[in-house]
Amino acid sequence: MSWPKTYSAFKRSGGAIPQTLQASEESLPAELGAHEVLIKIHAVSLNFRDAGMLHGRYPVPILDGGVPCSDCAAEVVGKGSSVQGFEVGDRVAVIPDVANLTGSDATQASSPGSDRPGVLREYAIFDDTLLVHLPKHMSWEEGASLACAGVTAWASLGSVSSVPEGASALFQGTGGVSMCALLISLGAGIQPIITSSSDEKLKAIQALDPRIKTINYKTHPNQAEEVKRITNGRGVNFVINNTGPASIIDDIELLCSRGGSVALVGFLEGWKAEWDPSAIMGIMGKNARLQGIAMGSKKDFEAMNRFLEDKKIHFTPIIDRVFPFKETRAAFEYLYAGKHTGKVVIKMPGDGK
C-alpha cells in the first residue's frame, strides 16, 4: 500500500476570537500502527458547532490551532497489520464522540474537530475502533451528513424503537439535526412537524413529502395550539429542542398526555431561561422525559446506518449546498449566517466518486 507524503488541510488560526481558517500542508507517516486506518476523505459536512467554535459560541475544550469538523465520508486507503473489520476500498465515517462506543462508557466526551484533530483535510488516520461502515446506497455527500446531526437525531427519537401508532414529532428550526430527524421520522412512520420563521424554507421542506407539516412560529406564535390542531388534540411524542432552555416549558406543553420526550440538543438562543422552576413539574404530570443529547454512541451510529440502508433512505433532499474545498471559508460563513436549510457540505479535491 502506498499513499501521498503530504496533503492539504484547514486549521483554526488560534488566539483571539473570532478565529479564522488557515490553509495548511500536513505530512503522512510512511507506516501505520497495528490498529490504525488511513482514510481518504471525499466529503465533509458542517455543523453549527464547527463555526460556533471560531466565534467563541461553543463551550467545549478546543484544540488550539486544530483541524475543525467531525463529520466526513471517506474511503479506506491503508490499514495496520491488526485492523479487523475494514478493508482497503471500504466506505467509512468517523464516530462523532470517540469516547462513546456503547452509550455507557464512563469516559469524558471527546470529539474530532474540538479537543482533537478533525476531518477538514484530505487524509486522516484513526484507530479502527473509531470508524463505522457507511450505508451502501448513499453518496459521499450523504454519508458525510450522518455523524453528528444524524446520530443526534436518531438518539433524540429514541432510536425509533417501540414507536407508538400515530406518533408525531416536532423539530425546532431547519438545521441539520431537524432535517435528519425529519427523514428518519418519515422512514419510521412518525408524523414530522417542523418550525421556521421563513415561509420560503417551509414551502421547500413541505415539497419533499406531503406527510410533512410545518409551523411558521412568527405568524403562529401559539405553537401549542397549532400542534394540537395538526395532531387532532393529541400533542406530539417527541420534541427536538435546538434553541436551548428558554423553551423547555413550552416544549413540555406540546407533548402528548403520557410518555413523550423532549430532547435538548442545542442552544441557538443561548443558555438563559426565565421560567419558574416549579413549571418543570409538568413533565411529571405527563410521565414524560427531558433528556440531554450530546450526539450518540458508535452503537447508535451503526444501528442508524442499518435502519437507513434497510429503508433505503436518502439524505440528498436535505443537502442545502455543496462547496468545493477551496471555498471552505465561504461554506463556514454561509452556515454561520443561518442561510441554510439542512446540511452544508464541503467536497474534497479528487474525483469524488
Whole-Å distance between the termini? 20 Å
Helix count, DSSP H or I runs of 4 or more residues: 10
Structural class: alpha/beta
Mean pLDDT: 93
Helix residue percentage: 10-25%
**What sort of overall outline do the alpha carbons produce when their principal axes are compared?**
globular
Identify the CATH class of the largest domain: Alpha Beta
Major sheet summary line: 7 strands, mixed
How many distinct folded domains?
A: 2
Low-confidence stretches: none
- The CATH superfamily of the largest domain is known as Medium-chain alcohol dehydrogenases, catalytic domain
Radius of gyration: 20 Å
β-sheet strand percentage = 15-25%
- Secondary-structure element order, as H and E? EEEHEEEEHHEHEHEHEHEHEHEHE
- Would you report the number of β strands? 15
Going by CATH, the architecture of the largest domain would be Alpha-Beta Complex
Say what the CATH topology of the largest domain is: Quinone Oxidoreductase, Chain A, domain 1
How would you explain this protein's 3D organization?
There is one protein chain. The chain is of the alpha/beta class and 353 residues long. It folds into 2 domains: 6-145 and 315-347, Medium-chain alcohol dehydrogenases, catalytic domain (Quinone Oxidoreductase, Chain A, domain 1), CATH 3.90.180.10; 151-292, Rossmann fold. 24% of the residues lie in helices and 24% in strands. It contains 10 helices and 15 strands. It has helices at residues 48-54, 140-143, 146-156, 176-188, 199-206, 223-230, 248-254, 282-285, 298-311, 328-336; strands at residues 6-12, 21-27, 36-46, 71-79, 91-94, 123-127, 131-133, 168-171, 191-196, 213-216, 238-241, 261-264, 289-292, 319-324, 343-347. Strands 3, 4, 5, 6, 7, 14 and 15 form a 7-stranded mixed sheet that branches. Strands 10-9-8-11-12-13 form a 6-stranded parallel sheet, sandwiched between helices. The chain has a two-stranded antiparallel ribbon with strand order 1-2. Helix 5 links the parallel strand 9 and strand 10 (213-216). Helix 1 packs across helix 10 (328-336). It is globular. The two termini are 20 Å apart. The relative contact order is 0.16. The mean pLDDT is 93. It comes from Fusarium solani (Filamentous fungus). InterPro entries: ADH-like_C (IPR013149), ADH-like_N (IPR013154), ER (IPR020843), GroES-like_sf (IPR011032), NAD(P)-bd_dom_sf (IPR036291), Zinc_ADH-like (IPR052711). Residues 16-346 form the Enoyl reductase (ER) domain. One of its GO terms (molecular function) is oxidoreductase activity. It holds the Pfam family ADH_N.
